[in-house]
Amino acid sequence: MSFIEGLKISASGLCAERIRMNVISSNLANANTSRTEEGGPYKRKDVLFTARNSGLSFDNLMRLAFDPNLKEVKVDGITEDRRAPRLVFNPNHPDANENGYVAMPNISIMEEMVNMITSNRSFESNTQAINATKSMATTAISIGR
Fold first, then answer.
1. Predicted confidence band at 58 (pLDDT cuts at 50, 70, 90)?
2. What local confidence, expressed as pLDDT, does residue 124 receive?
3. Secondary structure E strands in the chain
4. How far apart are CA 15 and CA 19, in angstroms?
């Protein structure tokens, strides 16, 4: 694997985790949103990752023939949670139904914080991989002098 290939793989991970962190932040910010533009409470969102081949050039196809495990990360989409909203009794709320219950997003703050920490750690790991690749490239250049 070349230095550039390693950088591309780590960079794709950084981009994917940045999108995931933005979605998690949106979930946390809207944990108490009972009314959206679409109507109803905010629906929790999640990011779908897939692995894709790291390029379609002839060089990359030859590498894949020898090492098929080299993959980049791709964000395949952002999905909405299909779970029913949780009902909270608050008869004074403007969005309360006739029984006094308000439909609130089914978002667990603890779960979202764990997802944020996991995403942050993945982001840090990709950053360290990029720094290690840069260090190896610098060492290789200095040996060649």
1. low
2. 95
3. 45-53, 71-80, 86-89, 101-104
4. 6
